[in-house]
Amino acid sequence: MSIRKLFIANRAEIALRIVRTAQRMGITTVVPWHARDRFGPALQVANETVELMGDPPVSAWLNPEALIKAALDAGCDAIHPGYGFLSENAEFSRAVTNAGMIFVGPPADVIERMGDKITARNFAAQHGVPVTPSAEEESDPTTFAERAVSIGFPLLIKGTAGGGGKGMHIVREASNLAQAIASSRAESQRYFGDGRLLAERFVEKPRHIEVQVFGDIHGHVIHLGERECSIQRRFQKLIEETPAPMLSADLRERICQAAVTLASAAGYVNAGTVECIVSQTGEFYFLEMNTRLQVEHPVTEMVTGLDLVEWQIRVAQGDVLPLLQEQVQWQGSAIECRILAEDADAGFVPDTGKVLLLQEPQGPGVRFDNGVMQGASIGADFDSMLAKLIVHGANRDLAISRMRQALQETVMLGVTVNSHFLGRVLAHPEFQVGKTDTDFLERNKESLKPIPLTDEDRRALVAVACAASRDPYSTTVQDPHLSMGAWRN
Amino acid sequence: MATFSIHGSDEPVHQARKHSADILVDDKLISVLPISLQSFSVKQSQHPIKIYAVVHGDSVYVQLHGRATRIDRVDPTRANAGANLNGGGISLAPMPGVVVSWLALPGSLVKTGTPLLVIESMKLQMTIEATLDGMLEELPFAEGQTFQRGASLARVCPDSPNGAAV
Q1: Could you say which residues of chain A have pLDDT below 70?
Q2: Is the ipTM of this complex over 0.90?
Q3: Smallest CA–CA separation between B161 and chain A, in Å?
Q4: Sheet holding B97-102: strands in order across?
Q5: Is A412 a domain residue?
């Protein structure tokens, strides 16, 4: 059954990303909006838009009944959930199917099996995929704290239903355990509507390696290679790349194979990501499975030349996977940087404001998946990610160099963004040799600080500020075109 | 003549004014050429550099070599106004958000670093701590209430020296 009209239950850059592929495939698209999120680029490109209600605004994208009704009213025959929001909600997948539409993602039973951290871990362990020592709260809530302590510190406390670093806390000594459990529970309840917890051994300074897998309803499962996402702050990824630097061919193969084994055993259908951590000594442990399209999927697209959203749609329609494992080819190196509305130099605090000037980077091998328009107000209502910058090169050095140039050319003025900070990470000697692990940003905090502006640059900036602003105090008011005449180059 | 300060910089303010085709900044003449509505070329000792700029009220957002910063026009008559208003005991909201929970009650004695309340903004939770020893006078926002950036979230009245009666 082929999809004719697709409802995208998401917003910002990923909504636009999905609209583009769907339209290329001849599918009509419908994108929702909210009064507080009225002018995203996806809304300009989509064939139709519909208004959602909700307070806080984010709740509109978390309301299954309203989304399904909006999709049906618009005459859609399928819903793509994107990432975040309801993308990993089994009930939503089931409700979409029960409403007679296609859910562009895994069937509900697959999400239930692999989307829940505890079930997925147990499933991984059963199928010979290594997992870190852990304790579940649910098996006996009264002894949860004791059992957590007996795993040994450092510990990671996290929600079983969560993801994206929300509700996760590292505990290094017993005295901090109670507070971590309370915070983790409150945050998990708040973000995921599920306060169940899991404690597991925290592996120090691991690399975060994940494998893109794809399955179809005919029982085929393949992988599209790995991504390294070790550059993180507060458990949230900032920079992702493929291939993972410093990962031996043998270990890469074993991790990818483990991911395929796991996905096959789970009867996995559609796009999924198997996340692992790799210790400093080269052991790898299954972390969790994300049963959806990943934010960082574009790096895989860059090196394989494939369109993962197209694959998602085709698999959802019941098609066979377009390629066999041995037909997948990887070329070169790709890196993604997440452009966030935050002040990286002030402890990664989110910022709000208005995008007064926007200039997208361009050039060979550069892709800019953007979710905001010039003039947009960036509030605290939604996630702080504004855009993703992705580059591709024949090798990692070229990709790094292109990324540095593209970051420098990215202009988003009016709200503080992290593009210059990302550029400093890319320029860091440890990053350049692939010495990346989840401790990278903390360890290199000092050397990642911006160098003070030179006096000459300070004066140049002030001169421009003076020239750009209408100056009520100026002694001579000049037409800018007159001043151009004085220029000699 | 106008006074400008570069955001986040400890350096003193700069004086600038237009001087025929150029701009005079702290007694140095700088040649600024507009190359579009929002970008300028500036002659420097080495090469000309390109600076993006966009004006918003009294602020000019600028970007040089991929690094963005904000330059504020300072009204000298208002400089330092409010500098003593805070007195160190008021915790201002670093971003707009919502109060998740109170961790201390108004009227209680707190020490520097005592957690006062938990706020949340853009899915990030932060604990606001006391910035000095004293009595927590007020938590102006109740749990669940939203606030804007710069709002006063907590006010601590400093201990009077040597415990002297006030």
Answers
A1: 162-164, 470-489
A2: no
A3: 32
A4: B124-129, B115-121, B97-102, B146-147
A5: yes
